[in-house]
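Journal club prep, shared notes

We agreed each person brings one worked example of a sequence with its structure written out as tokens. Mine is Atrophied bacterial Ig domain-containing protein. I'm keeping it raw so we can talk through how to read the token line rather than staring at a rendered picture. Sequence first:
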Amino acid sequence: MNRAVWPFYRLCLYLLRRFWRRQTDEKTRQLAFRLRAVRAGDAWKEPEEYYARRAGAALGVLVYGLCAAAAIGLLTGSGWEERRITAVERPEAGAGSMETELEVRVEGEEQSRRVVVSVSPRKLTDAQAEVLLKKAAQNLEKEILGANQSLAEVRTDLSLTTSMENGTVTLDWISEPLGVLDYAGAIYDQEIPESGIAVTLTCTLKCQEKERTRVLTVRILPPLRSKEEQEIEALEKAVREANGQAPEAEAVTLPEESGGKILSWGSASEPVFGGLAALTAAAAAAVYLRDEKKLERLLQYRQRQLIMDYPALLYRMAMLLGAGLTIRAVFFRLGKEYSQEKEKSGDKTLRYVYEEIVTSCFELKNGVGEARVYENFGRRCQEARYRRLGNLLSQNLKKGSEGLISLLESEAEAGMEERRQQARKLGEEAGTKLLLPMMLMLILVMGILIVPAILNL
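Then the structure, token by token:
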């Protein structure tokens, strides 16, 4: 296990052993049986260690990931002096206005605010300005309706936009009586009679030096504007005033104060902690589920290996029985040969059927009855053919090996057929996996042949 997650594994193991009462239900017993079946070794000895390993790895990923996310968030959120700016470049003429989100620090306040700053493009010709101004005046009523059907019955906020035609036309609004609509068209929360309140909106449309005035009459209902919105309005108004100064300049100088307070502007920093925290949580969940998938793959590999080894095992048993050995001696002979070969070669690859034979040899040495040992052998293999073999060996203890040899040989023939079917199935699966790469290679080859031919036409 990685040293980085070892403390978390020990913590989870302690908590499980301290507070988790070991369950004896069928699910837990089945898990313990599966862990022993794949010979997980030191990694997963018992169900609580299996769960502790998974939870420890997930907890380690979660803790280290959140710490890294917090550190990156702090680093990217700092460096105010490096992000500090005094001007915003204008877009080219005819490209439309540009909106950029900036951070502003007000003197005497610890928290910075985010403000969307709109910068108009460079100056247009008089003819272009007149065309845009006329078009904006024609579409003004439709522009401010918002979700309302008509200005004669306004039941939701209006949209008193401050620019039209991609920001080339700016709009200044005056509403009478005061205190009914805010600068953006939101309705103040106040008592309004059933007949409603008639409000006159005077809009001054400006496009550089050109301007027009339209007067609209609306009947409305009330909303509410917060203190935060009022402060943002003052800041945006200050930016609009700065934007109106020196329209030929390449950049707009941001206001240095508003409401008697000094302003400090900076480019907006993007928060990264939330995204990194979400990715960390997803990684922790993936790590936790990884061992479960690994266990499933090991069980599938074990099942395929047992099927492939079945005929060869039966032929070896039949040969040894024919040489005069007893069933007990056959088990000890097979177990000893497997252990010696494994130790000599140093190969750590497990042959699961011979691992079960070695376990059966230990049972025989410990005094467990032969019939029960062979039945346990078939049960541990978790395959119908091996259970059938265990029962066959158990039933033929008293009969001797003469009739058993022919039974083993016929069973081996049937096992060879199953092995061929298994090999055919694995080949088909491999062919299916290769289908997509082959299609991609075909497309690549066709592209290499066809593209030059098309280019030469």
